[in-house]
Amino acid sequence: MAFSKWRIAMFKLTLRGTLLKLDGRSNTIALAEAHNLRKIAAEFKTFNHIDKKRTELNLELIPVGIESLTQKVLRIVQEAGINPWKGVYKRPDKGFAIEWLFSVTHGFTCNFEELYRECLDWLALRYPTCPIVHAVIHYDEDYPHLHVVMIPIEGSQLPSSKILGYKGVSRERNEDLFRHVGHKYGFTCEGHLKGAAKRYASEIAIQACEKLDWHEFRERLWDTLIQSIKTRPEPFLHALKIPIETRGNNSPAS
Q1: What distance in Å separates the CA atoms of residue 207 and residue 226, rounded to the nearest whole number?
Q2: pLDDT tens digits, residue range 11-20?
Q3: pLDDT at 133
Q4: Predicted confidence band at 90 (pLDDT cuts at 50, 70, 90)?
Q5: Distance (Å, rounded) from C-alpha 95 to C-alpha 92?
Q6: From CA 32, how far away is CA 138, in angstroms rounded?
Q7: Mean pLDDT throughout 174-203?
Q8: Which of 27, 56, 164, 173 could serve as a FRET partner for 99 with CA atoms 20 to 30 Å apart?
């Protein structure tokens, strides 16, 4: 198979948000706290991807504190001059918090605590009026990821849906995360260049690579190259003229 037909997978840093309510059977602040702090014993049996032996590795970057998370959110909301029991805030579907989930493409490796602390700093700067009330890195699932619970306060309002936004807002938010954090770790942008912009970007990237000596190449590109090989080794095997044939057990042929 020709090299040009192989697509080298790259790694992405992704952010998704969910509105959290006060009451209900799902997507509540209390349930988010219970899951994030591993207070639901049944999850260890129901979800096979949670490894109880590694739960002690989970790291709270911003602890809940002595209050429950729901109590903490309500206290801060009221301190901001918002009555959670009046008007629109009495609606059962009203979001009182947003839970952000930062995650990376499976197979990526780095100092995850360092990465996610930078993500947390970025989030605080992007939404300076919105208090972050809890943040925890989960190391006991398939891949390290960061949960952050934030109160969407603007003035004396809780415009949770506005801040969470829709598809266009989510895309711009991920692109901004890439510009401020992701690119330093070798992630690719959430968006995809097309047409003339893609051709131009390819040309300048190739030109920049051609100017690098071996030391600069190792320093700037080696980690990204290794991650690409681990994710999709086929094009590299082809370029190195190493047979890609496999046996029935999917192990490389000798």
Answers
A1: 21
A2: 889 999 999 9
A3: 98
A4: confident
A5: 9
A6: 13
A7: 77
A8: 56
